[in-house]
Every structure is written in C-alpha cells, then in structure tokens.
Amino acid sequence: MIRHALAEGWLLLRQRAGVSLILALALAVPISLAGLGVSFYRWLSPMAGLSHQGSTVAVLLHPQLDSGQRDRWIQEQTTAHPGWEIIQVSPSDLAERLTQWFPYLDDLVASGETAMPPLIEIVTAEPEGVSILQGRREVLAIGPLTSIDQILGRVARRLAIIAAIVSAMLLAGSVLLAAVWVHLELYRHSAEITIMRLVGATEHTIRGPFIFAVAVPGLVAGVLSIIATLATAASVSRMTEALGLAPLDVSPQVLALQVTAAFLLPVVSALLTLARHASDGLDG
Fold this sequence. Notes:
By secondary structure, the protein is an alpha+beta fold. Helix content is 70%, strand content 8%. The longest helix is centred in the middle third of the chain and has 41 residues, at 148-188.
C-alpha cells in the first residue's frame, strides 16, 4: 500500500510539477516572512525591556538650603513618592561633572569661590512624574524628563507587537493557501477518487497518493523558506552591525518550526478535505 501511494503520488507530482513548484514557492514566502517576524520579535525583546527600565532625572536644589533642611526635604519626597530612589551627589562629584561638561569653569570651580548648589538624582520608572517638583521653592532646576532608553524601549516594544501580529497574519494566510491548494488538487481528481471508491478501494489507498503529492511540495516549501529566511537575516545583520547593533539571529527552533509548518499545513488540509469529500460521497 505504501509503495502504491508513493508511485501514484509521484505520478501526480509529475503531472503537476510546475504548478506544485509555484504553490510551494507561494507557501514558502509567508512562512519565511513569519519566521523572520518571530526572529525580529526576539531581537527586539531586550530593547523593548528598556521601556520599563528606571531613568535618572537630575534635580538641582536651592543653594540656600542647609544640610538639615536638605535631608528633611529628601526624606519627605522619599515618603511621598515610594517609587523614587533619591541619590545625593557629593559636591566633589558635581564639581568634576561641571568641569567635564563645561571646561571653561575649571578655574572657577578649582578656586572654591563659588558655592556649589546641592544636586540630587531621582531614579524612577516614570521620569515625567518628577515634574511635580517644578515650581517648589526648594528646587532650583530640573533636568530633562525624557529618557533615550525609555523612548527606544517603547519604539522597540511597538515594533515587536507589530512583528508578532504580522507573523500571525502571515501564518493564517499560509493555512488558507494550503487549504485552497489541496482543495483544487482534489477537485481536479474528484472523478478518479469517485471511481476508486466505486471499485471498493479503501480510504487509505485513496488518500495515500494525495497525501504524498502535497507533502513533497510542503517539504520543498520548508527548505525554500529556510534559505530565504537565512539570506534575509544575513542581509539585515550586515546593516545592523554597520549601525553598531546586534545581528539578527535566527534560532534553529524557528527554522525547525518553519519546516514543520510547511509540511503539516498542506498535509492536515489534505486530510480534512479528503475526509469531507468522503463524507459528501457517502451522503450522496
């Protein structure tokens, strides 16, 4: 029975070699793009995590605050905002930063003639919330409230969500394509299937050649999808490495899933279509 299925299935493939190859290519494209989408999602995941990373906001306090008043004010803010981690910057560290940022202040800072205003750093996951301190008499100035890391993380998270949605849509399109492919092939051979049933052929004998005829193009589609995925990932990796980013890596699990999907989608579609055809034949 297996030998008969292979022989008849190979005959079907030879009769429809060109169309089967075209359909295999059409199936390989969405599966390859879905694999790239999954890889792109995995590549963006570490950057997407930056959106939840704490950001540091510099707050310059009024120089007239003495150490006791400053400590009490910091304690009040720590109690009022438990999500904030407040770090006091020492005058020596502040002087070093100022001379690095503004070299022309080196002589003024070294002379010690100018009192350094107290500087604190607030580490928080929501830097925009620090704006509540704006206008307080103890606060002289507030640094930038936007974090480059958080902006990058939000953009990466949105791109990752888009990649996941597109991958799901492409896989759904692959399922539909495989179903239409199998349905057309079985419709073309419907008369032969009916005759085989009339002469008493078993369902296994009838289904075997068609399962083989759709499984082989499915495997071809899987191989083609792997080649396309690796080639595209290599091209993208060259661009990302030129920008100083990590290369787009395609894991072996993703490649295995592509081959599995390319093989199973047409086979399962063929089994379902053959079962429905058999049910319709019995009902008739």
